[in-house]
Amino acid sequence: MITYVLKTLWRHRTRTLLTVSGAAVAMFVFCFVGSVQEGLNRLTTGEDADRSLIVFQENRFCPTSSRLPEDYAGKIKEVSGVRDVMPIQVWTNNCRASLDIVVFNGADPEQIRSSRPIELVEGSWDGFESQRDAAIVGRNVAQRRGLDAGDQFSIGEISVKVAGVFESSVPSEENLIYTSLAFLQYTRGLDAAGLVTQHEVTLAEGADPDRVASEIDAKLRTGAVATKTRRKGAFQASTLSDLVDLIGFAHWLGYACVGLVLSLVATTTVMSVQDRMKEYAVLQTIGVRPVRTMRLVLAESTLLCIVGGFSGTLFALALLWGGGFAIGAEGATIAFRPSIGLAVSGISISALVGVVAGVAPAVQAATVPIVDALRQA
Amino acid sequence: MALVELRGVSKSFQKGDETITPLDDVDLSIEQGEFVSLMGPSGTGKSTLLNLVSGIDRVDSGTIFVDGTEITELSRSKLADWRAANLGYIFQTHNLIPVLTAYENVELPTLLLKLSSTERRQRVELALEAVGLSDRAEHYPRQLSGGQEQRVGIARAIVSHPKVVVADEPTGSLDTETSEQIQVLLQRLNKELNITMLMVTHDAEAAEIASRRLLLQNGKFVEREKTVLVPEDQTPASGSVATQ
């Protein structure tokens, strides 16, 4: 009977093609939006979101406006529960939300190498550590900007030599460019010497992040600049708060796409079934059970959805994989990263939508009044 | 018990405010191997009777037995199973599935039975051979003439080796020559394969090929004897056949 289903779809190939394309476009959008949502979730609830703290200048939001003394690192280290502190100078080409944000993080190369979940896929650590203006570039940035090890890369007043390209298990890391702290401080002018944007604190095993954060802020309250310390996940969510709202809204757009596929495939299948009521009556006269008739219709709608959904999902994942897209604001970035979970959910949702979309027309075909339908011209 | 047995079967329809009762307490028995033709004016319930015997319509009252099974008691699903195994239906307008080839159309009913692929193939080939269309197996309905389509329809009706084949005006949409070919084919299938047939027709000539001819009048059956055709210009306006 699958021959019948396939041939029926082929007979109406224009309709089939249009429906499959519609489903593909909708699932493409669903997966794209899903990848942004996943990127945000990974950023705010990832492994280090709760085990690292960010010390930022109080009441400041953009990296360009936060200026903390570098020597705060020593004082922060004295707080119990702190395992390590990394002073970071952040430079971004755009403090507002942007799809092509470039974020430099300047820190001690040794610390970068030991504390960041990154691995060089091109170039060498030695080149990075030995040259003052050397930088290692995240894979996404390299992809977007067409950078390879050995290239010279300039943006604004910063010009670096690409010493390597790295990949990371944390997708947002792949949107960063790391340089040495001294280099980035130097490029911001002499008044930036001894100042950093933030301190990243790695917590000791079992330390309570909220307690440590409060103690750090209390300890530095008497210093030159007051601080606000938060868990890394909370800090990033707060930094990206405008984007988080937007992404929350886009999430509904994803569901709307699923609804769109449902409506599209249901309409197509209803029309197709209504055109063929006599055919279903003939099939049942021959001896096809009503349940089997239902299955034929469900197979049609599910096939349309699966083929469309699979194509859309695959295309979205390929584009996400090759495009290295990211959105960022105020120095924090969200990577649009394809995942197996996204592929599975895209295809599963397509199949589910196909079944749901086919239920009403399937019931219609199964319960067709045979005699009346056979009388149709 | 006869192969097909109708006892006190009644069927009414509502047409606007009017209730039409084409079949009123009808009894009928058809023996195994019989070829019964059923004639009657339009609207007398010939097709309704055929649909009731096929189990695609429901009686208002009465019972229908086919080969000992009371089909009036069966659910829609069970009736489908029963039709797949016991009934062949020949439509007036062929009703082939347009996306399937002649072979696939004939194969359809066999897919509903528990048959091996070899047996299925053999049956389809035999059925197509029986209707003389082995060389058209891979043709689609749109590539066949009306007569060829009807022959595929007949092959589809006999391929599952049904107990009874019903035919609803099988020559109704065909020209005279093709119609005669189909009549000969039906007669041959009845005689050679001993298939029990119940055929509804408006065509007096087609009705003559049956071994038993019935006329449905005022909701009742009247047995008709062998008829002779009378030239049209010598017949009264009421009909073109005379009973001998």
CATH architecture of chain B: 3-Layer(aba) Sandwich
Major sheet: arrangement of strands of chain B: 6-7-8-3-9-10
Mean pLDDT of chain A: 87
Unreliable spans of chain A: none
Shape of chain A: elongated
Oligomer: heterodimer
Strand composition percent of chain B = 25-35%
Terminal CA distance of chain B reads 30 Å
Question: Using DSSP, what is the number of strands of chain A?
Answer: 14
**Category from helices, strands and their pairing of chain A:** alpha+beta
Distance between the termini of chain A: 25 Å
Q: Please tell me the overall pLDDT of chain B.
A: 86
What characteristic shape of chain B results from the CA principal axes? globular
- Tally the beta strands of chain B: 12
Measured by residues with Cβ under 8 Å of the partner chain's Cβ, the largest interface is: A-B, 23 and 27 residues
Description:
- The complex is a heterodimer of chains A (377) and B (244).
- Chain A is α+β, with helices and mostly antiparallel strands.
- Chain A has 2 domains: 177 residues, no CATH class; 167 residues, no CATH class.
- In chain A, strands 1, 3, 4, 5, 6, 7, 8, 9, 11 and 12 form a 10-stranded mixed sheet that branches.
- In chain A, helix 2 runs antiparallel to helix 10, helix 2 crosses helix 12 and helix 2 packs antiparallel against helix 13.
- The mean pLDDT of chain A is 87.
- Chain B is an alpha/beta fold and 244 residues long.
- Chain B has a single domain, classed as P-loop containing nucleotide triphosphate hydrolases (Rossmann fold), CATH 3.40.50.300.
- In chain B, 32% of the residues lie in helices and 28% in strands.
- Chain B has 7 helices and 12 strands.
- In chain B, the strands form 3 sheets. Chain B has a 6-stranded mixed sheet. A 4-stranded antiparallel sheet of chain B has the order 2-1-4-5, covered by helices on one side.
- In chain B, helix 6 links the parallel strand 7 and strand 8.
- In chain B, helix 5 packs parallel to helix 6.
- Chain B is globular, with a radius of gyration of 18 Å.
- Chains A and B meet through helix 1, helix 11 and helix 14 of A and helix 2 and helix 3 of B.
